[in-house]
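Appendix C: a fully annotated inverse folding record. The material below is reproduced so that readers can follow the format used throughout the book. The structure is listed first as tokens, followed by the designed sequence.
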């Protein structure tokens, strides 16, 4: 499967995480690993004693793809280095690794996060909030209602993750730690924003299924940013059929990411010169 995520430098990431932990040795440090990205692969023996987040009645059916909370052995430098380098190597090129600092240990973090994993929309739908996916995590502080973000980061002092470029980044935890309020609800605005933020990855996934050979083998984070621009282009012009957005993504990729200012394309869009959902055919005809 193709992810718009660059590989990390194992030595560099390990070194940076070791230094971050050294600045706050009194905290409990826990690695958060989204094992959904291991599904269908050989079983991985994560270093430490992982706690499966979905090990509860409501989420039990999804334990195979559960995020894992891996306690980090901060008091033993050699073992910590082994843990972090093993995790970094395993997760490289996949959006699945973050670490948190908290007064609570991995087991104690579970109950609050289990309540946060299941969210309810305004119309009563129950959804899974995949905050362990590091493509999703960085957008949550700006997308979620402040009370929801405060609930997710309750009793956390730091949250660091490996970003799309393979470097260490952080999300800001809530500045005022208040008791979370449940159920965890997501309003229409938040839900729409989450869908918009996830659209570029969905488009890239669709391209990988249709024309995998055109996807770049490197500089994947930059490719993601370009597909973000394609999605914004489509949204601004009310091109809302997903197959049409994918067609634009393919067209732009095949044309060296220079297509969105092409007069022929702009004219086609202005005249709505295609049947909804069938832009690919119109583009092929126009540029053959």
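Designed amino acids, in order:
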């Amino acid at each position: 499967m193709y992810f718009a995520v660059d590989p990390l430098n194992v030595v560099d990431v390990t070194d940076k995480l070791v230094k971050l932990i050294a600045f706050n040795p009194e905290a409990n440090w826990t690695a958060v690993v989204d094992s959904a990205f291991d599904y269908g692969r050989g079983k991985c023996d994560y270093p430490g004693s992982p706690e499966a987040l979905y090990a509860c009645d409501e989420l039990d059916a999804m334990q195979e793809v559960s995020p894992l909370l891996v306690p980090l052995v901060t008091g033993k430098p050699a073992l910590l280095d082994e843990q972090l380098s093993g995790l970094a190597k395993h997760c490289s090129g996949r959006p699945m690794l973050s670490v948190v600092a908290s007064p609570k240990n991995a087991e104690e973090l579970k109950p609050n996060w289990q309540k946060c994993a299941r969210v309810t929309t305004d119309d009563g739908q129950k959804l899974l909030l995949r905050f362990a996916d590091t493509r999703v995590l960085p957008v949550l502080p700006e997308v979620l209602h402040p009370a929801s973000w405060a609930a997710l980061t309750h009793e956390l002092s730091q949250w660091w993750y490996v970003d799309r470029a393979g470097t260490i980044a952080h999300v800001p935890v809530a500045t005022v730690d208040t008791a979370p309020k449940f159920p965890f609800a997501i309003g229409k605005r938040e839900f729409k924003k989450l869908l918009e933020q996830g659209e570029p990855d969905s488009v890239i996934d669709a391209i990988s299924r249709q024309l995998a050979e055109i996807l770049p083998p490197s500089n994947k984070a930059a490719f993601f940013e370009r597909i973000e621009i394609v999605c914004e282009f489509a949204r601004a012009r009310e091109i809302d059929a997903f197959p049409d957005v994918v067609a634009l993504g393919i067209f732009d990729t095949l044309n060296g990411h220079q297509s969105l200012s092409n007069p022929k394309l702009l004219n086609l869009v202005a005249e709505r010169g295609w049947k909804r959902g069938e832009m690919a055919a119109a583009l092929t005809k126009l540029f053959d």
